[in-house]
Design goal:
Shape: globular
CATH class: Mainly Alpha
Number of helices: 15
Low-confidence stretches: none
Order of helices and strands: HHHHHHHEEHHHHHHEEHH
Distance between the termini: 48 Å
CATH architecture: Up-down Bundle
Largest sheet: 2 strands, antiparallel
Number of domains: 1
Oligomer: single chain
Number of strands: 4
C-alpha cells in the first residue's frame, strides 16, 4: 500500500460521506422546511410519513464524515471546529429538536402545533447553519502555525448568510421534488408549486454564489477563469445548465422522477465545484490534505475499518429505500 496516496484516498472517502449526507438528508430537511406552508393536517402527516423511515439513517453519513475528519485529519478538525463552533452547535441543536418532533408530534395531541413548529424550525435552522458553515469554509479560515487564528464571529459574513439562505431554498427544492415522487393528489400539486418557486431561486442563487466565490481568493479565480484551467472545469457549469433545463421540463410536463433527479444533479455538481476550488487544500486556503493527515499507519489501520463499515452502511441504506419505495398512503402512521 506504499504506492497508494492514503491522505488523498481518505479525503475522497470523507468527501463521499459528506456528499452522501447532502444527497440523502437534504430532501428530508426540505420536507421539514416546507411543512407549515402546506395546507391540511392530513397532508402534513403524509409529508412526515414520507421521510419517517429513512431520516435517521440519512444522518449516519454526517456522523461518519465528522468522525472521519477527526480520526484521519486531526489538524484540519482542530482548526475547523473552533472556527465554526457557533454554526455547528446551532445545527446540531436544530437536528435534535427536529428529531424529537418526529416522536412527540404523534403523541402530544394538544401540543401538536408546538411540534409542527419544532419540525419546521429545526429543519430550517439545520439547513441554514449548514449553509453558514459552508460559506465560512469557502471564504477561508485564517491559520497561524497549526491553530485557528480568527475571531469568534468570523463565520458571520454577507457571503455566509447568502450560502445559508441558498441551502435552505435548495433543500426546499429537494423536499418539494421528493414529495412529487412520493405523494399524489392535492399534496403533489402543492409540491409542484413549491418546486417551481424554490427551483428558480435555487438556480439564481447557485449562479450568484458561483460568481461571488472566485473573488474571495485568487486561487479560486485562477482555477475557474485562468487559461487553460477553465477548459477543464467548463463541463461543471455546462452540466448545471443541463440540470436546470431538465428540472424545467420535468416540472412543466409533470414528470414525477425527473425533477428530483435534476435537483440532486444541481447539488452534486455544486459539490464537485467546491472540490475543484478547494483542492489540494482541506482547510481553504491554509492547510493541504497532505499536511493535515494523520500518520500513515493510522490511515492504513482506519482504512481497513472503513472497508468493512462503508459497504454495510451502503447496503442498509439501499435496502431501506427499497423496502419503503413507492407512494406514501394518506392513512399511514409513524410510530
Amino acid at each position: 500500500m506504499n504506492s497508494v496516496d492514503l491522505p488523498l484516498v481518505w479525503a475522497g472517502l470523507i468527501a463521499f460521506s459528506v456528499l452522501a449526507y447532502v444527497v440523502l438528508d437534504s430532501f428530508d430537511l426540505g420536507v421539514g422546511i416546507l411543512f407549515l406552508f402546506v395546507h391540511g393536517e392530513a397532508s402534513r402527516d403524509t409529508m412526515m410519513n414520507s421521510v419517517a423511515p429513512v431520516w435517521d439513517g440519512n444522518e449516519t453519513w454526517l456522523v461518519l464524515g465528522g468522525g472521519g475528519l477527526l480520526a484521519v485529519f486531526p489538524l484540519a478538525y482542530s482548526i475547523i471546529l473552533p472556527a465554526l463552533y457557533v454554526p455547528l452547535t446551532a445545527m446540531l441543536l436544530a437536528l435534535v429538536f427536529r428529531g424529537v418532533a418526529f416522536e412527540f408530534r404523534w403523541k402530544s395531541y394538544k401540543g401538536k402545533f408546538v411540534w409542527d413548529w419544532a419540525f419546521m424550525l429545526g429543519s430550517t435552522a439545520a439547513a441554514f447553519f449548514q449553509g453558514i458553515a459552508l460559506g465560512a469554509l469557502v471564504q477561508g479560515i485564517p491559520v497561524a502555525g497549526r491553530a485557528y487564528a480568527g475571531g469568534w464571529w468570523d463565520w458571520l459574513t454577507p457571503f455566509s448568510l447568502v450560502t445559508g439562505m441558498a441551502l435552505v431554498i435548495g433543500y426546499a427544492l429537494l423536499g418539494a421534488s421528493w414529495l412529487i415522487c412520493k405523494t399524489e393528489g392535492d399534496l403533489q400539486s402543492q409540491a409542484v408549486h413549491f418546486a417551481w418557486i424554490s427551483g428558480a431561486l435555487t438556480i439564481a442563487l447557485i449562479g450568484l454564489v458561483s460568481l461571488w466565490t472566485p473573488f474571495l481568493d485568487a486561487r479560486y479565480m485562477a482555477r475557474w477563469f485562468g487559461w487553460p484551467q477553465a477548459l477543464y472545469v467548463l463541463p461543471v457549469p455546462a452540466l448545471v445548465a443541463a440540470c436546470a433545463v431538465a428540472l424545467y421540463i420535468g416540472l412543466r410536463d409533470r414528470h414525477e422522477l425527473t425533477p428530483f433527479i435534476a435537483s440532486l444533479g444541481l447539488f452534486v455538481l455544486s459539490f464537485f465545484g467546491l472540490c475543484i476550488s478547494f483542492y489540494p487544500h482541506i482547510v481553504p486556503s491554509s492547510v493541504t490534505i497532505q499536511a493535515a493527515a494523520a500518520p500513515e499507519n493510522s490511515l492504513r489501520f482506519l482504512l481497513v475499518g472503513a472497508a468493512v463499515l462503508l459497504p454495510l452502511i451502503l447496503a442498509y441504506t439501499a435496502y431501506s429505500y427499497r423496502v419503503f419505495r413507492g407512494k406514501v398512503s394518506m392513512d399511514a402512521a409513524y410510530h
